[in-house]
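User: C-alpha cells for this one?
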Amino acid sequence: STTDGPGIRTNIFLQGCAKRCVFCCNPETQALANPLEHPEFAASSAELSSLLLKYKEWLKPRGGGVTVSGGEALLQPEFVADLFQRVQSIGLTTCLDTACFGNTRRWDKVLPYTDHVLLCMKGMDNDIAARVARVSAVEMAKSKAFSYYIRDHYPNIRITLRWVLLKGITDTVAELDALVAFAKDLGESFHAVEILPYHELGREKYDMLNLEYPLDDMTSYTLEDARVVQARLEVSGLSTILSTV
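Assistant:
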C-alpha cells in the first residue's frame, strides 16, 4: 500500500472489532475469533516479521514499513507491540491504523513502538460519532482522549486523522469546524486530515455475509463535493490528503 502511512507499506489486517461502523467496508473482520480454533488463519508475530524481512529492501525507502489495521488493532495489543518491536528492529517504520479501543494501560503496550497513527474519527460530536460507530457516546469520546494522550506522552508519534465524508452527517459546518479546532489542539503531533469520501465498495461483502447494509439509502460522496470540504479545511490551516480510492 502507498496510502496507509509513509512510503510503501505492508498492511496487516487483524480479526475482531468492538465497533460496527455504518460505513465499514470490511465486515468480515468484525467478529472475534479464537486462533486456536482457526489455526489456518492464525499467524505469530515472529512468523510475520520473518516474512517481512524478505521484503525489507522494497519497504524501507521513503520511511516505508508496516501498517497494522483491522478490525481493531488495539484489541490485540500484546501481539501488535511484539510485532512492532520486531519491525523496528529491522529498520522499518510502524503505523497503527485504529479507531481507538481500551484505556491507557492498553495504549501504553503499543505506543512506545509506534511511529505513526492513522486515527479514524467517526465524528467530532460524540453523539454523531456514536451514531456512525454504533456504540455509546462515552466509548467514542475515547478517540479524542487517545489523541491527547499521544500528544502529551508520545510526542514523536505523528497522527493522521481519517475523516469519512457522509452527506449531512460529517460534512456539516459544525462538524468541520470542530475537526479543525481539534486538529490544531494536537499541536506538533498532528500530521494531516485524510479525507475519505464515502463509497459503496464493501456492499457486496454484506450480501455475501447475509448482513443488512447500514447505509442502503446513502449515495457515494462525489469527488467534487469532497474537494470543497478539502478546500475549507486547508483555508482553515490544516494539511489534508484526499483519498480517491
